[in-house]
Amino acid sequence: MKQPNHDSVVLGFHGSDDAAAVRLSDGKLLVQTVDFFTPVVDSPYDFGQIAAANSLSDIYAMGAKPLFALNIAGFPINDLPKAMLTEILQGGADKANEAGIPIVGGHSVDDKEPKYGLVVTGEVQESKMWKNSGARPGDSLVLTKPLGTGIIATAIKKGLVTDEIINIAIKNMSMLNKKAADGLKPFDIHAVTDVTGFGLLGHLAEICKGSKVSSEIYFSELDFLPSVDTLAESGIIPGGTRRNFEYLKNDIAFDSKLSNTQRYLTCDAQTSGGLLIALNPEDAKIFVDSIYPEAKIIGHISDKNSTLIKVT
C-alpha cells in the first residue's frame, strides 16, 4: 500500500508502535489508536469494560494522556436483544470514566457477531513520548500483568473454567494500565509496548527488531493466571497463540528443558495485557519493589546477536 509522506506524522505505518502520533504545535503530539474485537467473556458489560481497557492501553503504552474516545461497534440488531448492546456500551463508558475521559460519539453497523472497541485520542509532549524502539543492552525487562488470557478466553468458550477463574481473568483484562504508566513517569524509559494479540514474545520481538538488540526471558519469572498451565497441558491452545509461535519459532531459542506447552505459553495471544518495559536495572528494581509491586522483572536486553530472543 502506497502512503504519501506527511511532515506532521511522527509515527505511522512505517513503524510498529502502539499508536499513531501526529505533530501539533508547541511540541505536542496528538496520539491516536483504534482497537475492537469479538467477545472474550459471556457478560456483555464485562466485555465492554475489557474492550475499552484494551483500547486505552495503547495510549498508556506511548506515555500519553488520553483525552476522549469514540465507540466502534458491530451488533446483530435483529438477532440479539438491544439491551445487550446497551450493556456493552455502558461497560465501555464506565471504563472510560475510570480513565477520566468522555466517550463523545462513535459509529455502529449491523453485524452477524458483536464487536466492540474504541478510537482513543490522547496527547503527549514529543520529548516525553515512549516508543517500542529504544531498548538498550543491559536494560531490564519488566511486565506489569500476568499472562494467559488467550487460553482462559478459549476455555471459557468451551465451558472448562470455574466462575472464580473467569472473574480473576475479567479483573485482569479490565484493569487499566494507567496506574502502571503513571508510576513509570519519573524514570528514563527506553522502550514500552503493551502485550496483546502477538503475545509476550511477539511484542518483545518488535522491541528487539526496532531497537536492533537481542533479549533473554526468564521463564521461571513469568506469572500466569490461575489454571492456565493446566488448561494448556490439556490442549487448550488458541489458534492465535499457535500462529504466534509458528511465526516466531525461527527467531526464538528455547531452553531444552522447556516443554512444548511452556513454549506456547510465552506466545499466548493476550487481550488487554500488561505493559512490557525496557529500562535500566536500578530503575526497574525501584519500580517493582516500591511503586508497582504487581510487576515483575522477567528478563533483560543484550547486544544484538544471531538469536533475537532466548527463553531460559
What does this structure look like?
This protein has 312 residues and is of the alpha+beta class. The chain has 2 domains: 9-128, 2-Layer Sandwich (60s Ribosomal Protein L30, Chain: A), CATH 3.30.1330.10; 140-311, Phosphoribosyl-aminoimidazole Synthetase, Chain A, domain 2, CATH 3.90.650. The chain is built from 10 helices and 13 strands. The chain has a 7-stranded mixed sheet, sandwiched between helices. β2 (20-23) and β3 form a beta hairpin. α1 (44-61) packs parallel to α2 (82-98), α3 (149-157) crosses α4 and α6 packs parallel to α8 (239-248). The longest helix has 18 residues, at 44-61. The radius of gyration is 19 Å and the shape is globular. The mean pLDDT is 94.
Note the total helix count: 10
Helix content: 25-40%
CATH topology of the largest domain: Phosphoribosyl-aminoimidazole Synthetase, Chain A, domain 2
Unreliable parts: none
Core attributes:
312 residues, 60s Ribosomal Protein L30, Chain: A, Phosphoribosyl-aminoimidazole Synthetase, Chain A, domain 2, six-stranded mixed beta sheet, seven-stranded mixed beta sheet, single chain, 2 domains, 10 helices, alpha+beta
Summarize the structure.
The protein is of the alpha+beta class and 312 residues long. The chain has helices at 44-61, 82-98, 149-157, 163-174, 178-184, 199-211, 228-233, 239-248, 260-265, 281-291, and strands at 9-11, 20-23, 28-37, 65-75, 103-110, 115-125, 140-143, 189-194, 213-217, 252-254, 275-279, 296-303, 309-311.
